[in-house]
């Protein structure tokens, strides 16, 4: 299982939000270049970088900075936030990002996003489905998690049939940044339902034992953020556990 240490950018600094709330942001590092260098030194192969300002604005804000980060590191960068158009995907790839994360557009305009995957390749685009519990099911949240899309998680998955996509990142919003443990049942359900997809888990990782548990549940990768920043375990330990 791949471990993706996270860098969430707000006004150029590394922060973590609680359940996607901008009024509950914790500043951890003002130098994202140093943070990526530390990830690389620890042995990571990938990093997950998010333009939080772009996610909030619904348009790219820090993509130029993300390009500089990609150019300064040997890590492969998976990046998103504010990606709403084909040009946004192309721009990030041109800047040196290895894989672009597409969230709201993947739910609201699946036909268009399917064409982006065809154009750029399955390994260059990751669909992001951010979900929250609703009526005994999960509803996809969009626009920086501020709105419900009116689409269930299963319906969002079904918009990408026949192995059109390869990478899907699923975040349980209620657990993101909360250090309450990942939603193992959700990941197990999705991995069993769509075994051809590389499901990435996000939200809730709090302890080292959460990582082998996610691997056993079928996750191909997991995003690790707050637990690393707060010293719950080291990245070296996480890479070994994954």
SSE blueprint:
Elements (H helix, E strand, L loop, with lengths): L1 E9 L2 E6 L2 E9 L2 H11 L3 E6 H6 L5 H10 L3 E5 L5 H9 L4 E4 L1 H5 L1 H11 L4 E10 L2 E6 L4 E6 H6 L8 E6 L11 H10 L4 E5 L7 H8 L3 E4 L1 H4 L5 H7 L1
Parallel strand pairs: 1-4, 1-12, 4-5, 5-6, 6-7, 7-10, 10-11, 11-12
Antiparallel strand pairs: 1-2, 2-3, 7-8, 8-9
Total of domains: 1
From the spread of the alpha carbons, the general shape counts as globular
For the record, the CATH architecture stands as Alpha-Beta Barrel
Helix content percent band: 25-40%
Structural class, from secondary structure content?
alpha/beta
Mean pLDDT: 90
Number of helices: 11
Q: Which CATH top level class fits?
A: Alpha Beta
Tag the structure with descriptive keywords.
242 residues; alpha/beta; eight-stranded parallel β-barrel; 11 helices; 36% helix; 31% strand
Summarize it.
The chain is α/β, with parallel strands linked by helices and 242 residues long. It has helices spanning 32-42, 52-57, 63-72, 86-94, 104-108, 110-120, 153-158, 184-193, 210-217, 226-229, 235-241; strands at residues 2-10, 13-18, 21-29, 46-51, 76-80, 99-102, 125-134, 137-142, 147-152, 167-172, 198-202, 221-224. α8 packs parallel to α9 (210-217).
């Amino acid at each position: 299982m791949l471990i993706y240490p996270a860098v969430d950018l707000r006004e150029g600094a590394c922060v973590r939000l609680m359940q996607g709330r901008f009024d509950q942001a914790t500043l951890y590092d003002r130098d994202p270049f140093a943070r990526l260098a530390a990830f690389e030194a620890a042995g990571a192969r990938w990093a997950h970088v998010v333009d939080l300002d772009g996610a909030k604005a619904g348009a790219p804000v820090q993509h130029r900075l993300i390009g500089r980060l990609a150019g300064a590191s040997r890590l492969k960068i998976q990046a998103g936030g504010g990606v709403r158009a084909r040009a946004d995907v192309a721009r990030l790839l041109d800047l040196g990002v290895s894989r672009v994360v597409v969230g709201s557009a993947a739910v609201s305009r699946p036909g268009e996003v399917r064409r982006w995957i065809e154009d750029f390749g399955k390994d260059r685009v990751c669909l992001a489905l951010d979900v929250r519990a609703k009526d005994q099911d999960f509803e996809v949240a969009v626009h920086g998690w501020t709105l419900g899309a009116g689409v269930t998680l299963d319906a969002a998955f079904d918009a990408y049939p026949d192995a059109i996509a390869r990478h899907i990142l699923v975040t349980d919003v209620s657990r993101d940044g909360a250090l309450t443990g990942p939603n193992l049942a959700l990941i197990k359900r999705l991995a069993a339902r769509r075994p051809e997809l590389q499901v990435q888990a996000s939200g809730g990782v709090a302890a080292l034992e959460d990582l082998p548990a996610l691997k056993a549940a079928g996750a191909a990768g997991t995003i690790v953020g707050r637990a690393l920043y707060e010293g719950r375990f080291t990245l070296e330990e996480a890479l070994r556990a994954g």
